[in-house]
Amino acid sequence: MKVACVGGGPAGLYLSILLKLRDPSHDITVHERNPEGITYGWGVTYWRGLLDKLHAHDPVTARAIEASSVRWSAGVAHVRDLTTRRPGDEGHGIGRHRLLEILAERARSLGVRLEFGHAIAPDDLPTADLVVAGDGVHSTLRTRHADHFGTRVETGRNRYIWLGTSKAFDAFTFAFAETDHGWIWCYGYGFGPDAGTCVVECAPETWTGLGLDTVPDADGPALLEKLFAGALDGHPLIGRPSADGSTQWLNFRTLTNRTWHRGNLVLIGDAAHTTHYSIGAGTTLALEDAIALADALHERPALPDALAHYERERRQALLSLQSAARHSALWYENLPRYIHLPPQQMFALLGQRHSPLLPYVPPQLYYRIDRAAGQLQTLRRLKRWLGPKVARTVHARASRK
After folding, report:
1. Which candidate, 251, 281, 252, 253, places its Cα nearest to that of 269?
2. Is the pLDDT of residue 312 over 50?
3. CA–CA separation, 317 vs 308, rounded Å?
4. Fewest CB within 10 A of the end CB: N or C in the chain?
5. 114, 107 contact by CB (below 8 A)
6. pLDDT digits over 133-165, tens only?
7. Percent of the chain whose pLDDT exceeds 90
8. Which of 158, 168, 197, 391 is nearest to 282 (CA)?
9. Could you write out the DSSP letters of every residue in 19-55?
10. DSSP E strand stretches across 56-145
């Protein structure tokens, strides 16, 4: 089969690796519009479950990724001058540049052609049996047929910015700072021995009140360094250079599509779906898309059948994560509801922000119920049963709007 992957992100590169491993005779080209070695972002996160899947599908790639990652197993929350630490699941961080380097090297070693600095126009698609649109949330291939795909975008209320730092966080770190214009907070995690990522978020009123809407991009990190000095231990924040002078502050865009394929064109990764960054699942979902698509193409010879199966499988797998991401984003948009709780309670509910029940239960009552549920099997079963029912009801209502 001749395959053209448009977009040299994790999804397209890992798909090319898996297809070549299944059948070396596949003719595969990855087209990336940026020059080699040029990428955006700082570090990406993933969890142990993804690493296990990578080891099962390609141990060579998995070992290289694991060797270049840092890990943590705790969470830390700074609220004003108070700090709370809790144990958590094993998490991993790796630089986005290093991840793409590993995937590109592995793809080349298997015979995949990589064409960097090569943008593909929607009306000039490569001649191939299968064209994979892995060109991100702003996918030009998807946009060309937006009516067919049924693309829908919901814009979040809060403003956010991705920044780098020389602070190597030893835990997944949350920091909440109170200002005269409201709360502002960051999520911090390490991805190297002297490198970390900080995602800063706040309500639009806080953003404008602090003057972040008018301060030059080069000066913004210095203002934020002062607000989060405690969590950063004096380390600087680093902005991403902006060639066109445009602001780096964004509103998160949750993207969904009614269908993920059209003829021999299929969507993968952020071109097909996005989930709020606060659950740290973007890279994981992209790689899992690649696994599912490679499996479907291998197991089902007829292309339409394979693409339909891939879409069904991934849609089903995404339901719980999309619900978790939606509720996580809303938790932060409603931060005043939780921020004045005692730190231990607030941090506990921060860990429960994915719950569809939490918005409908008074926070302190939810905290007491959650603690009791951890000790009583009957309450644990009730919580597991009731949570998905509420999530499905809310999702159905939202879909009808």
Report:
1. 281
2. yes
3. 14
4. C
5. yes
6. 999 999 999 999 999 999 999 999 999 999 999
7. 78
8. 197
9. HHHH-TT-EEEEEESSPTT----SEEEEEHHHHHHHH
10. 70-79, 82-95, 113-116, 130-133
Are 167 and 43 in contact, with CB atoms under 8 Å apart?
no
* Banded model confidence at residue 102, pLDDT cuts 50, 70, 90: very high
Residues in the chain: 401
In contact, 93 and 39? CB cutoff 8 Å: no
Determine the Cα angle at 113 with ends 107 and 114, to 5°: 80
| 158, 251 Cβ separation under 8 angstroms | yes
- Which tokens belong to 301? 């010879």
Q: Tokens for 171?
A: 């835990």
- Report the amino acid identity of residue 168: A
pLDDT per residue over 20-50, tens digit each? 999 999 999 999 999 998 887 899 999 999 9
* Contact (CB, 8 A) for 107 and 8: no
Q: Which two tokens stand for residue 235?
A: 């380390």
User: Distance between CA atoms of 180 and 226, rounded to whole angstroms?
Assistant: 14
> Pairing between strand 82-95 and 43-47?
antiparallel
In this structure, what DSSP letter does residue 125 have?
A: -
Cα separations in angstroms, 65 against 33, 68, 96, 205: 24, 5, 11, 40
40-79 pLDDT, tens per residue? Answer: 789 999 999 999 999 999 999 999 999 999 999 999 999 9
Query: Residue 221 carries which side chain, given as an amino acid letter?
Result: P
Q: Is 199 helix (H, G, I), strand (E, B) or coil?
A: strand
DSSP class of 92 = E
Contact 34, 117 (CB under 8 A): yes
Please report how many Cα atoms fall inside a 13 Å half-sphere around the Cα of residue 113, on the Cβ side: 12
Q: Are 195 and 168 a contacting pair, CB within 8 Å?
A: yes
Residue reference for tokens 């009552």: 365
What DSSP element (H or E) covers 362?
none
pTM: 0.90
Contact 152, 272 (CB under 8 A): no
pLDDT at residue number 245? 44
Q: Are 73 and 219 in contact (CB under 8 A)?
A: no
CA dihedral 51, 52, 57, 61 (to 10 degrees): 30
